[in-house]
Amino acid sequence: MDNLAPAIHPPSGIGDNQPTHQEVLDWVHEVSMLTKPENIFWCDGSEKENAWLLEQAQAQGVVQKLNEEKLPGSYLHRSNPNDVARVEQFTLICTPTKEEAGPTNNWAEPAETYAKLNEMLKGAMEGRTMFVIPYIMGPPDSPLTKVGFEITDSIYVVLSMRIMTRMGTVAVERLEKSENGEWNRGVHSLLDVNPERRLICHFPQDNAIISVGSGYGGNVLLSKKCLALRIGSYLARQQGWLAEHMLILGVESPEGKKHYVAAAFPSACGKTNFAMLIPPARFEGWKITTIGDDIAWMQIGGDGRLYAVNPENGYFGVVPGTSYKSNPNAMKSIERDTLYTNVALTDDGDVWWEGKDGAPPTHAIDWRGNEWTPESKEKAAHPNSRFAVPMRNNPVLDPDVEKGEGVPISAIIFGGRRSDTMPLVFQAFDWEHGVYAGATMASETTAAATGAVGQVRRDPMAMLPFCGYNMGQYFKHWLKTGPRLKNPPLIFHVNWFRKGADGKFLWPGFGENMRVLKWMIDRCEGRGGANESPIGCVPRPEDLDIEGLKEVSPETMAELLSVKSDEWQKELEGQQKFFDTLGEDLPPEMNAQRDKVAARFGS
Ligand code: OXD
Ligand code: MN
Q1: CA of 386 to the centre of ligand 1 (A)
Q2: In sequence order, what E strands does 178-224 have?
Q3: Cβ(294) to ligand 1 under 6 A?
């Protein structure tokens, strides 16, 4: 754990790469006058710096080196047990008016919040080192790329940001060349890692973030959820692009025809697995490649298509359940250069988690640092334990991942974790209907955020915890984007998680999802049959290639693709209730689409 680790003093040539940009210098000076660190460490992202920081982090017990033969270049970090997930109730959007943040966000008045945070940050870094991390989000030569600076007193944050972003001199250079001078100010302090003093605050108008009291990735790697999604979505609306909680993958046919697809699923619904999918034997010659596993920034290209970049440089994935069965490419990616958080440590310096291939170890140290055996009641790894790994480790990384203009998107997929109601897949009739399908997305909750697990909650476009402004305005921005596209992507909705009467999943998921993806690609190419149902175009069983998929009987297939009127009456009521909470900003098109579905059901 890195709570209150004392200051570290680098030798000359490390930590002294201070930029000359006056605004950055003034801001760092101001924060240091408030937080009173013992020293300031200017990060440059170099190998030399990283090696030195890793030594210090080990000496301070912040990370532990893992077995070099089994997991070269890999480390384990344990977070404070009270600090293992995002905290949505303490995540604030601080816009001048409450209305701008909208009813789905926790709003706080900016001036009052700054005052409160300044009070909390007074002297917060005394006796400690303040790190300044310059980073960019996006490929170095993309017009979408954004510059950020994060100040932190956590060495774990520095080590993680080096994996998750393009960090160091590249950001300083980009800022020097920038025409609009736009850059994000992020301040993070662990304080005393006290849940009572934990706040993740966003100031979209100031392009600023202040996060205190947590050391958990989603709350403190300010590049990711805070900048790339919450502030990003706010900037995207102003600047006419889209910042979305979506993976991006490439699908290449044996003939070499390639499509790119972006997909939004709520946290811990298998985005990383889907982004690295290995097609089953039946699809020999098909290739899936990854552009990104969590976030997509998309803009309209000169040809009127939607183009996407992945702003990140690494993956911050959920570990439990990752195995050679569920995601062989992730397993290969995390064999080296990986920073693990809150997994179990085996006696030979390897890592273990529930759902890993093979038998559990007979003895391990669990994520809390306690002795663990298979008889223990506690989990060995926390359900939201994570890996942070550079994307270049991914064996199926797409060759165009660094392309500044991005990759053209043929299809957008929305999906959630639903035991019933939602068929395996359907296609929206058009862009507006697709926006409604995204706006009404719902999912059963998981361990990626604190709170009850397993309850259905509406999570429009998987952005409920990440939209930095009013959700109704966000839907409007989506609605406006469609007509600006000459050749818009088709929009689909999937559900890998439907269950039968026995409570078991009906669809095997993982690599077999290729079969559904193939149908979507067929639809993009003007092929692929479907039935027009009240909720959209649903494939008939014969439209999906399920050859070789023995575990799915014709009855199961029929159940998976069924659209049941009684379930949908309930669903439409749930949608209505959600829409009602969005108040006057909800675009009328959303209720109109809902009414059309009801009318198609004849109600
Ligand atoms: C994540 C999340 O960590 O969505 O990606 O919670
Ligand atoms: Mn996510």
Answers
A1: 10
A2: 184-189, 199-203, 208-212
A3: yes
| Closest residue CA from atom 3 of ligand 1 | 218
Residue with tokens 């570290």: 8
The Å distance, Cα 267 to ligand 2 centre, comes to: 5
Q: Quick one: how far is CA 441 from the chain centroid?
A: 17
Alpha-carbon span 475 to 439, nearest angstrom = 7
> In the numeric block, which tokens belong to residue 561?
């693709």
Centroid of ligand 2 to alpha carbon of 316 (angstroms): 8
Residue owning the nearest CA to atom 2 of ligand 1: 267
Q: Does residue 185 have its Cβ closer than 6 Å to ligand 1?
A: no
Residues 6+ apart with CB under 8 A from 131: 40, 41, 43, 151, 152, 153, 154, 155, 157, 158
Cβ–Cβ < 8 Å for 199, 212: yes
How far apart are the C-alpha atoms of 497 and 507, rounded to whole Å? 7
The response to whether residue 481 sits with its C-beta less than 6 Å from ligand 1 reads no
Which pLDDT does position 179 carry in this prediction? 87
Q: Who's near 248: CB < 8 A, 6+ residues apart? A: 260, 261, 262, 275, 290, 291, 292, 296, 308, 310, 407, 409
Alpha-carbon gap, residue 310 to 293, rounded angstroms: 8
388 CB near ligand 1 (under 6 Å): no
Examine the residue annotation and report whether 226 is marked as an active-site residue of this protein.
no
Phi-psi region of 186 (alpha: psi -120 to 50; beta: other; left: phi over 0): beta
Write out the CATH class of domain 22-62+87-239: alpha beta
What letters, b where the CB count within 10 A reaches 16 and e where it falls short, cover 289-305? bbbbbbbbbbbbbeeeb
Domain ranges of the chain: 22-62+87-239, 244-314+398-600, 315-393
Mean pLDDT, 10 residues at a time, the chain of 603 residues: 80 94 97 98 97 97 97 97 91 98 98 98 98 98 97 98 97 93 97 95 98 94 98 98 98 97 90 95 97 98 98 96 94 98 98 97 98 97 96 98 98 95 98 98 75 81 97 98 98 96 94 97 96 98 94 95 96 97 96 98 85
Cβ of 448 less than 6 Å from ligand 1? yes
Give me the architecture of the 315-393 domain, per CATH: Beta Complex (2.170)
Per-residue confidence (pLDDT) for residue 505, from 0 to 100: 96
Q: How far apart are CA 233 and CA 231, in angstroms?
A: 6
Q: How far apart (Å, rounded) are the C-alpha atoms in residues 75 and 194? A: 25
The confidence score (pLDDT) of residue 268 equals 74
Rounded CA separation 469/298 (Å): 18
Cα separations (Å) of 351 from 51, 336, 376, 501?
22, 12, 17, 37
Catalytic residue among 43, 269, 467, 524: 269
Q: What is the DSSP string of 371-383?
A: EE-TT-SS-SS-T
Any ligand 1 atom below 6 A from CB of 384: no
Annotation: CATH topology of 244-314+398-600: Phosphoenolpyruvate Carboxykinase; domain 3 (3.90.228)
Phi, psi values for residue 373, rounded to 5°: -135, 165
Residue 580 structure tokens: 């009602």
CA-CA distance, 475 to 435, in Å (whole number)?
7
pTM over 0.85: yes
Using CA positions, which residue lies closest to atom 4 of ligand 1? Answer: 267
Q: Which two tokens stand for residue 143?
A: 């017009």
Ligand nearest to the CA of 295: 2
Q: How many residues does the chain have?
A: 603
